[in-house]
């Protein structure tokens, strides 16, 4: 009998030990106590400050990196100066596809896997594959400053070893295709003339006219008026042609270490022939296809939706000045490929004295809500090792927790007073 009691004690002790280990594992589960990378911990703090809530009055829940969606897009940033007033403009293309991607920035540094081979420890790289812009074409006269000069590749149309290129001058008539660029920005402010013609026949005629005037002015100067900076491992190549002709070949001239000039010999005669025309005739005679391409980005069509949208935005910013003689300055123009992250999360906030909510519809006898749950969605940009919030929006209205007893819903009516309803007979019922 004593041995049987001892067995019960041993079994009960083992059962308690199992229960304790399961409860400990449940408390330390990474799903209940998630550990975020530093970039996303900083993102949560930025969201907290942006919402304006006190840390003791609310808490964020559902912020799970496994539910984060990743998308690629192109951002446009402009600074326009009108009458000594600087107006920043920021546009973002719609993300075509959101997908689940395990980016290195999502991983926690402490849990990074490491392997030891030949006495060396190799860790996973925390650098992500940066997005790049789609290939585009640039036409001279202009100058290009290459930030990643060591990774510069030149093809005319075959690869040319020109050393480390920091600056490339495109002569008038020279056209190159740019591939692999992460961003393109304006180095110096440019003054643009007015009036701005409105969009006609589905083409951005106003911007095309401005581009032609700027191109004519740049041709008249000794040094290129337009200067761009290109960031990223880039390649410059002659535009490919379906016909096996040498009209697309570019001539390279070394001006200094790290500085070359690209010119198109086949177009020099045409440039000399039209260089004497007046500015009023230039938009018609310089480019017969002026209603289809935009200088200096000749690969952009005049009917492009982004171009039409920007012209509409610019005309609304200029207002009545868009139709008057004058000018305005373009201080900044930056086009860059970006990686965005979209994460949903919930906020549970304690209510104080109604906290702006309408309590008039709640009867006096009902318990007033003490907390409110709100659901948000944050759109953030990945900038190196940082995640910068761009927009935080509420995805649905405030949901207030409330419970009602069944007898209150039925009007405090007993079952004996509930009317008996006989449904019509169903011949298929057994």
TrEMBL record:
<feature type="signal peptide">
    <location>
        <begin position="1"/>
        <end position="25"/>
    </location>
</feature>
<keyword id="KW-0732">Signal</keyword>
<dbReference type="InterPro" id="IPR053283">
    <property type="entry name" value="TUNICAMYCIN_INDUCED_1"/>
</dbReference>
<protein>
    <recommendedName>
        <fullName>Tunicamycin induced 1</fullName>
    </recommendedName>
</protein>
């Amino acid at each position: 009998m004593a041995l049987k009691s001892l067995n019960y004690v041993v079994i009960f002790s083992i059962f308690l030990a199992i229960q304790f280990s399961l409860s400990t594992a449940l408390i330390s589960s990474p799903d209940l106590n998630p550990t975020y990378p530093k970039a996303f911990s900083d993102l949560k703090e930025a969201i907290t400050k942006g919402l304006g809530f006190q840390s003791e009055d609310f808490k964020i829940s559902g912020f799970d990196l496994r539910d984060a969606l990743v998308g690629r897009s192109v951002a446009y940033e402009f600074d326009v100066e009108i009458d000594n007033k600087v107006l920043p403009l920021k546009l973002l293309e719609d993300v075509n596809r959101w997908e689940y991607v395990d980016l290195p920035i999502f991983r926690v540094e402490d849990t990074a896997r490491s392997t030891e081979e030949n006495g060396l420890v190799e860790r996973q790289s925390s650098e992500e594959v940066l997005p790049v812009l789609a290939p585009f074409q640039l036409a001279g006269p202009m100058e290009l400053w290459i930030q990643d000069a060591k990774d510069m590749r030149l093809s005319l149309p075959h690869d040319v070893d020109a050393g480390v290129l920091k600056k490339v001058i495109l002569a008038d008539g020279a056209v190159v295709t740019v591939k692999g660029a992460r961003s393109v920005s304006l180095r110096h402010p440019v003054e643009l003339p007015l009036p701005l013609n409105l969009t006609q026949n589905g083409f951005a005629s106003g911007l095309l006219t401005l581009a032609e005037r700027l191109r004519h002015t740049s041709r008249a100067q000794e040094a290129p008026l337009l200067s761009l900076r290109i960031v990223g491992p880039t390649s410059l190549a002659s535009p490919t042609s379906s016909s096996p002709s040498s009209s697309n070949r570019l001539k390279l001239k070394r001006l200094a270490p790290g500085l070359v000039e690209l010119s198109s010999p086949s177009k020099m005669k045409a440039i000399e022939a039209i260089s004497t025309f007046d500015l009023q005739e230039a938009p018609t005679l310089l480019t017969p296809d002026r209603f289809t391409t935009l200088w200096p980005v000749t690969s952009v069509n005049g009917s492009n939706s982004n171009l039409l949208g920007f012209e509409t935005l610019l005309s609304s910013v200029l207002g009545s000045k868009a139709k008057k003689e004058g000018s305005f300055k373009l201080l900044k123009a930056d086009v860059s490929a970006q990686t965005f992250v979209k994460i949903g999360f919930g906020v549970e906030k304690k209510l104080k004295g109604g906290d702006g909510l309408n309590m008039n519809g709640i009867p006096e006898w009902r318990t007033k809500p003490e907390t409110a749950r709100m659901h948000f969605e944050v759109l953030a940009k990945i900038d190196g090792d940082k995640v910068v919030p761009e927009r935080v929006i509420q995805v649905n209205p405030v949901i207030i927790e409330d419970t009602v007893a069944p007898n209150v819903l039925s009007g405090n009516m007993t079952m004996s007073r509930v009317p008996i309803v006989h449904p019509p007979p169903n011949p298929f019922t057994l």
